[in-house]
Amino acid sequence: MAVGGEENGGGVLRQRQRGCGCSKADFFPEESFASWEAYGRALRSTGARLADRLTARSLDATELHEVRARSGADMKRDLTWWDLAWFGVGAVIGAGIFVLTGQEARDAVGPAVVISYVVSGVSAMLSVFCYTEFAVEIPVAGGSFAYLRVELGDFVAFVAAGNILLEYCIGGAAVARAWTSYFATLLNHHPNDFRIHATSLSADYSRLDPIAVVVIALVCAFAVISTKGSSRFNYVLSIVHVAVIVFIIVAGLTKADTSNMRDFTPYGARGIFAASAVLFFAYIGFDAVSTMAEETKNPARDIPIGLVGAMALTTALYCILAVTLCLMQPYTAIDPDAPFSVAFADRGMNWAKYVVAFGALKGMTTVLLVSAVGQARYLTHIARAHMMPPWLAQVHPRTGTPVNATVAMLVATAVIAFFTNLNILSNLLSISTLFIFMLVAVALLVRRYYVTGETTVADRNKLVACIAAILASSVATATYWGLNKSSWVPYAVTVPAWLAATTCLWAFVPQARAPKLWGVPLVPWLPSASIAINIFLLGSIDSKSFIRFGIWTAALLVYYLLVGLHASYDTAKALAAEYAAGRVENGDAKPSAAPM
């Protein structure tokens, strides 16, 4: 079966251009869906196919060439480090900094909130390093989906990517509804004044938000017209946003009182780390920038500068904003909902609340824009692998953007934003994001220490044992922390166990691969630390988020077993049959080169 392709004279598969049709062939072109009888045969083979896909690890070249070609047209390579840096700033600095800082400073950590921001920033920077190496080596639109597919296999990649798409939809809907609230505040209205109250609906879904839908639609238009145009719009808004933040810092420091910082750590070390788990979510968004690697002119230079530079600037601004707030007011007097606005009002600068609201609007707009660009590219690459309908993988030949995927994701986001109360959305914390950051760090260790056909069985087994020990010790530390016990004895076991596992990996397992262009320093220490910190932060998340994670993951598994598994299996086998050299993906490779 040919999968939308044909061979040219050199025997290389070439993707046929398809229009944006909506026929069955656009959604289910695979052999397993040719008829009900074929589908029945596929379902009866689910066990064997799942066993194959569980061990199927894609290749760098496959993601860079064959998989990318399934979109028909290429994305335009016109982004530079400047674009990526401002995309990073725009993705990360939203309204959260104006709310989370006050909430945690008052209730969890006090003036030491600045230390919490440093801890969160270090954790985020470790993840940035891992993402950067992958984005430089595999510059495709799939982001973490492509990285996990190469190192941990199809199955893990699909479960992880499905969860992050849900987070994008929920996060985008929450930001869009918050946009309406801040817009109303800016015009001296109550946040619900611009919403329609549908009394026949449940209270949590009765405040209909047409403004949120309009904002999402406008963002969608920008995202599909041009990535470079979206970049220009983003960095103009981001520069304005940074200017507003600088103004808040300068104006706030003119009202500083150093006596407010005397009781610096009223809640102790536990307060610092508990707050850092919450404040970590103020850094989420940079992963969307990695999905733009395919559109970057010089990935080896632009991605490290753009991603690391954006995170460094963001961390610095967050820390200075936190210090400014705590200097303006005693931490006990900070308002948890509108900390900067109330602080300025208490210091005789009531007019400054409009500047804060304006800055928040700018921040939320850029977050929505970068989220729209990133989530569409995640979905595009998933569809390229035929785990989602390949219609979603199509790139428009004129704009060079994934129009179908962008519209599909933003329609889903708009539906959620139109009906769902902000409190419901905000309770669904980003457990999936931390989970994927942890998996990317694991994948980086696998990438450095395991190469199919080269790594010996003994070294492979030692690698598995070390990674398992790192994960187990990290989970044990996070679990005990979550139990809120005061004894230090368990930490005296779990932390040295993590240190010993990482030391064994460093000392006894040889690296099988060196980065070609840019690499994470201090491997395995930095990826191992990223694993530990992300799992530690997972241990601080509420039980409702884990329940939601479990329910959504179960739904993903049902879809995968009924549709995604068979479509991706057929695609991999069809491509393998069309190449004289053999398999494109090495899930059931030669016995002497069995995957890990």
Task: Characterize the structure shown.
It is a single chain. This protein is mainly alpha-helical. The chain is 66% helix and 2% strand. It is built from 23 helices and 4 strands. The protein has helices spanning 24-27, 36-44, 46-54, 60-69, 81-92, 96-109, 113-137, 144-151, 154-186, 210-225, 227-253, 268-279, 287-290, 299-328, 339-346, 352-384, 403-419, 422-426, 431-449, 457-482, 489-508, 525-538, 543-578, and strands at 5-7, 13-15, 196-197, 207-208. The strands form 2 sheets. The protein has a two-stranded antiparallel sheet with strand order 1-2. Strands 3-4 form a two-stranded antiparallel ribbon. A hairpin with a 5-residue loop joins strand 1 and strand 2 (13-15). Helix 9 (154-186) crosses helix 23 and helix 10 packs across helix 16 (352-384). The two termini are 29 Å apart.
